[in-house]
Fold each of these.
Amino acid sequence: MESECYYCRGIVLTDEDDDILLDDHADHQVYMHKRCGESHNVIQERTESTATVEITCPECGAVEIH
Ligand SMILES: [Zn+2]
Ligand SMILES: [Zn+2]
């Protein structure tokens, strides 16, 4: 399964650790590369767990935990 990055329009592979799919959004699916989200400040590392990040959906502003 693959789609386009929200920011750079490059291919996102959802089985790659550094590629992100926001899929809890009723009318839109957002894919992005981790590096693209970081460069647009929508990805925040959680200080208590380096394995978990908070991602702000660029479409609706909801925050997802990954
Ligand atoms: Zn990208
Ligand atoms: Zn959304």
Note: The radius of gyration is 11 Å.
Amino acid sequence: MTKKKINVGVVGYGFMGRTHSNAFGKVNQFFKLEHQPVLKAVCGRNAENVAAFAENWGYESSETDWRALVTRADIDLIDIATPNDSHAEIAIAAAAAGKMVMCEKPLAMNPSQAEEMVAAVEKAGVANMVWYNYRRVPAVTLAKQLIDEGKLGRIFHYRAKFLQDWTISKDIPQGGAGLWRLDVNAAGSGVTGDLLAHCIDTALWLNGGISQVTAMTETFIKERTHALTGKVEKVGIDDASAFLARFSNGSLATFEATRYARGHKALYTFEINGEHASIFWDLHDLHRLQYFAHSDEGRLRGWRSLHITDGDHPYMKNWWVPGLQIGYEHTFIHQVADFLGGLSDGKPAGPTFRDGLATDYVTDAVLRSAASGRWENVS
Ligand SMILES: NC(=O)c1ccc[n+]([C@@H]2O[C@H](COP(=O)([O-])OP(=O)(O)OC[C@H]3O[C@@H](n4cnc5c(N)ncnc54)[C@H](O)[C@@H]3O)[C@@H](O)[C@H]2O)c1
């Protein structure tokens, strides 16, 4: 069958530019789809570096100005893999030019910007998606299936953490390549928008809406040299963020993220406790799902460690043979596969921009609560 070509233009060629390029390039080898992404162009500001990236990953061309890329007649889909402060401008211009848009998370710097992005893609009627890739770890997708099937029954508790330790040194500058996450003007917030946003997206997907939060944040290192100005400047991001939440279904939650948990590199975990069963997942062991079922015979009852590698586990029949696991990069391939599948069956795969906006509403309530010291409603 001749596949319908989708010409992709990726903006940004850092960490996410690589995961996305890999996903667009591999998806058709592993998934049977009507559409086929074509690596048409990649955009970055340094002509020599972006040309080298284009050659390495097999792009047909490169650009140094995203404005030129989004208006190119031979581009169907704009993929945004740049720091957070440029998501809105690129996405809105891409939608106005009639392109499909995939955008990295968090969707925007704040909810009002995110609302404009939602309005732009919905007005243009273009397919859109936010790269909250953890939904597509097969073990996390299985957790979603088990919850939707009612295996957990009524849910009482949701507990999520995302722990890192890479900004503890006061000598790390803020701003510039790789360190834009420490600069509030480029990132919008600290770990709240960077790490907790992932935890919140997964939680909204698995357990429904969050109605209220009460939060605390801290900036442990108050001043850092700015890589772009060379001056010591106030740090505007939150280094750590924790909040309590109430879900609309009546369950209670705790969320925590920090870059000051010595010994932890990217420890994203969640545990969900229901009336009949509980689930625990850990990114460091992403191919396993821990499951406890109260219905098991008493003598044998206990936490099971499920190895999510079988053909009847989500996505796994597309990969190797039972028992052989897959990893982080595959979640992006799954996301592209589902996005393209949505184009074929007319059922857009989430998270759409509107779903991304829902996460931005929660992170906004977290930051408002940390400032006010009170419970805050989620918009
Ligand atoms: N889904 C995930 O798990 C995940 C993980 C990491 C980062 N992210 C998100 O992805 C985005 C990018 O993060 P990253 O870690 O890849 O950053 P990075 O610093 O590794 O790469 C950013 C890239 O954007 C380019 N860039 C910056 N401004 C540009 C402009 N105006 N025009 C063209 N190119 C520009 C930079 O040159 C660089 O190539 C952020 O929004 C971040 O929050 C998501």
Note: The chain has a mean pLDDT of 98.
